[in-house]
Amino acid sequence: MSISGELRLDFRECVGAFATGVTVVTTHAQGQPAGMTLNSFTSVSLDPLLVLVSLAHATRTLEAVKSSNRFTVNVLHRNQRDVALAFAKPGAPFPEGYTVQDPHGFVVVRHALAILRCEVYGTHVAGDHDLVVGEVIDFEGSGGQPLIFHRGAFGGLDADALVPQGRVIGIHTASGW
Ligand SMILES: Cc1cc2nc3c(=O)[nH]c(=O)nc-3n(C[C@H](O)[C@H](O)[C@H](O)COP(=O)(O)O)c2cc1C
Hints:
The protein is mostly beta strands. It has helices at about 5-15, 60-70, 80-85; strands spanning about 20, 25-30, 30-40, 40-45, 50-55, 70-75, 100, 105-110, 115-125, 130-140, 150, 155. The strands form three sheets. It has a seven-stranded antiparallel sheet.
């Protein structure tokens, strides 16, 4: 079934009701860094530690991740809207200034709220995207407010939605978490 432009727009508007954080997925392959803004990120498993990202077939980052077999998920801080925009330009040169390469070869976005270094655990073709599952081999996080993406726009959390000092209340003690 071919999907009309109107149906695509309606679908995007519908799923845009689901607010997410914003990440930049980075990697390094064949001597070149690659990276893209991505909001289709979720944690999947605690044993082993697995996360999932969904990368469009047209993206250079997917090719680079397939080649390097590793990637970094950089969760953006509320004040990193410029970073999100810089990594969302198809065909643009890699925005070097926002990143550093760590001693293990992972490309990391400076001042990101959280950084998860992953090795590819598996991939699954899903329509025009690949679902890439990563095994988290290292992670770090700092306190601060996240950048939010909702209905096609960037924003931040309202104060009453923020958890004090970045600590999760209750969820980690609830059944199954
Ligand atoms: C907020 C936001 C979220 C995005 N999320 C995704 C995503 O989950 N998957 C995807 O394939 N592209 C996503 N994109 C689009 C890519 O960032 C964009 O196509 C990028 O230019 C691809 O870069 P590359 O071709 O250099 O890899 C998103 C863009 C924005 C602005």
